[in-house]
Specification:
12 strands; single chain; alpha+beta; 6 helices; seven-stranded mixed sheet; three-stranded antiparallel sheet
């Protein structure tokens, strides 16, 4: 707002024919915050090289199971007929895509004092990451009802790694179900992390630093105010920007994300989240940048434009390496 003026004195900064005192715009854009993306930490790209050059699909052969018989053989006895081992295969399709197409008029480019194209290209790249993360999490967990553009109905997580009787061997762990979500609080959140770890342990999933647990921000808050003796130990001085990494606890690398599928549970009326946990061996991802064009002199206007098409595929190749906690975080 300019200085006040006496009655009858012209206002040279007002809109109109006498406005020759220009407005000054800040050369710094207001910082835009992006949702933390986790895809690179929770998936593998072991098969990406097989489609980079040419192709939109790859068949992945999984390891078969050889039956082992204990105390069946007797001296002089006959062996059972040989087992024929099946080696199931999984198809990874590169059948999803994102694209962006934007530009700036030459007049705006020359009169602007900030690099508009550079700023917008960065925004487009971050937007792609968020869109792909959102799709992959919804695809794996089988629920995308919070986003009308994404709607899946079948969870690809192993059925024994979720639900009220989770656990391949004993079925002792209640990880929540629609209608009865796990009631997660500061008092029991560590117990649920330990339960999830036990569930994967019954499938002999490796206890290495690649094991991950993704939770919403509200659960991260509950964890930081729980019975952890030193909450600062959850920090990670080497975390990368926008990774959402919280740190390590038990045998988990913990991530917080705003992109997890969630809904208001129809029975309890509680905001409930599908929290994915597991090992990157369970999920594979591959992508291709099909084309990126910089249009310097378009025929129909004066300006510069960028358009880019990015295709990708995602597939659960080992469901037993993934699990789901259906949780209703409660702040007390």
């Amino acid at each position: 707002m300019g200085f006040g003026r006496a009655p009858g004195y012209p206002d040279y900064s007002a809109a109109g024919t006498s406005a020759f005192i220009p407005e000054k715009w800040s050369t710094k854009l207001v910082e835009k915050f992006y949702d933390a993306t986790v895809l690179t930490h929770i998936s593998n790209t072991n098969y990406e090289g097989e489609i980079k050059g040419l192709g939109d699909k790859v068949w992945i052969r999984t390891r078969g199971t050889v039956p082992v018989y204990l105390n069946v053989y007797q001296k002089g006895g006959l062996l059972k007929p040989p087992d024929r081992i099946e080696s199931p295969r999984v198809q990874l399709l590169v059948d999803q895509n994102t694209y962006f197409y934007f530009g700036v008029d030459d007049i705006d480019k020359y009169q602007s004092d900030i690099a508009l194209m550079s700023q917008w290209a960065e925004d487009a790249t971050e937007g792609e990451k968020v869109a792909i993360d959102t799709d992959v999490l919804a695809y794996v967990l089988g629920y995308g009802g919070y986003n009308p553009l994404i709607q899946y109905s079948t969870s690809l997580v192993d059925s024994l790694n979720q639900g009220a009787t989770a656990g391949r061997i004993y079925g002792l762990y209640n990880l929540g179900t629609p209608g009865a979500p796990a009631q997660v609080t500061t008092a029991n959140i560590i117990k649920y992390l330990a339960m999830a770890e036990a569930v994967l342990g019954e499938y002999n999933v490796p206890d290495d630093q690649s094991k991950f647990f993704i939770m919403p921000r509200v659960m991260a808050m509950l964890l930081k105010t729980s019975d952890i003796k030193d909450a600062s130990m959850m920090g990670d001085a080497t975390s990368t920007l926008r990774s959402g990494r919280l740190g390590r606890l038990l045998n988990w690398t913990l991530y917080a994300s705003n992109l997890l599928p969630h809904r208001i549970d129809a029975t309890t009326g509680q905001l409930s989240f599908y929290c994915l946990f597991g090992h990157p061996l369970g999920l594979t991802f591959a992508d291709q940048f099909v084309e990126t064009n910089y249009i310097d002199k378009p025929e129909t206007t004066f300006g510069k434009f960028i358009k880019s098409l990015h295709v990708f595929g995602r597939e659960v190749i080992k469901p037993s390496a993934l699990g789901c906690l259906y949780a209703a975080p409660t702040i007390t």
